[in-house]
Amino acid sequence: MFRQQKTSRQRTVRWALSLAIAAATLAGPAQAQPLSSLSHIHGIAVPADPADGLYLATHNGFFLATSDGNAELVAPITDDFMALTPDPSDSRVLYASGHPRGGGNLGLLKSDDGGHSWNRVSTGLNGPVDFHALTISPVDPQRIYGMFRGLQVSRDGGQSWSMGTLPAGVRALAGSSLSADTLYAATDKGLKISPDGGQRWRPAMMMQLPATLAHVAADGQAYTFLVGKGLMSVQESERGWQPLFNGFGEAIPVQITSDRSNPQRLFMLDHLGQLWRSGDGGHAWQPFVGGGN
């Protein structure tokens, strides 16, 4: 036990030291680079001021992308950010997870300033964890769900965790706007829903095609993408999923996020690393670069 605790502390010290060194190195103005040069985008989120662009969690750090085709490193670290989710009550607050460049796992990270600085909230359960999916309940921002060796659930903003269950083949998680206990999971066998914080699961819709993403916007509109069917949506307070768009060609959407101040503005990442935007709730889509507002 002592050796495990010592190893965890050593990893934390190494990560803090690498952060300090990177901060000193990147103290000057951020340098823009072509968006197309970024490797492995793992997460997207809309800044508090949507005019700023789009946050990207990538294999080489946390970036802000703009529609002119450029991206700037926001945080002075170049770790592998594997998951990213904004606090639904405050877009300046972000949570992330992943791997430090030196190896190991980062645990749960939090930023209160739009990604400019990050602090470890906790190592998670049986951690340090490397969440590959994260979501926060729109009903209760203290409720955080993360995927690492099963479902981990926090009811106190990530300080402590308990285990839930997950259906097989999960690709994404999304908290519901109706209840902090209601959770969606996009799986290889369709979109699933849990009414009790990840203890029991059932199909969320009749069609059981592979689902690649899940998201609930601030207006209660839920989204998923079904392979072979396209982007689907439903108002959570109602019933009946409706098709929105299936014109992405060979690209398969894997993440979608929305503007908290204008939920009709959506942004999407596909499996090829391409970014898209919609201004009408997902009925029409354009490339993020040069695609207008």
Strands, helices and their partners?
Blueprint: H1 2-25, E1 32-34, E2 41-45, E3 54-58, E4 61-65, E5 70-73, E6 80-87, E7 90-99, E8 108-111, E9 119-122, E10 134-136, E11 144-147, E12 151-154, E13 162-163, E14 170-175, E15 183-187, E16 190-194, E17 202-203, E18 211-216, E19 221-226, E20 230-235, E21 242-245, E22 253-259, E23 262-270, E24 275-278, E25 286-287
Antiparallel strand pairs: 1-5, 2-3, 3-4, 4-5, 6-7, 7-8, 8-9, 10-11, 11-12, 12-13, 14-15, 15-16, 16-17, 18-19, 19-20, 20-21, 22-23, 23-24, 24-25
In short:
With 293 residues, this protein is mainly beta. Helices cover 8% and strands 42% of the residues.
Shape: globular
DSSP summary, beta strand count: 25
Rounded to the nearest angstrom, the radius of gyration is 18 Å
* Strand adjacency order, main sheet: 1-5-4-3-2
Instruction: Detail the poorly predicted runs.
Output: 1-29
Helix-strand string: HEEEEEEEEEEEEEEEEEEEEEEEEE
Q: Could you give a short account of the major beta sheet?
A: 5 strands, antiparallel
Structure commentary:
The protein has 293 residues and is mainly β. 8% of the residues lie in helices and 42% in strands. It is built from one helix and 25 strands. The chain has a five-stranded antiparallel β-sheet, with no helix packed on it. The protein has a four-stranded antiparallel β-sheet with strand order 6-7-8-9, with no helix packed on it. The relative contact order is 0.10.
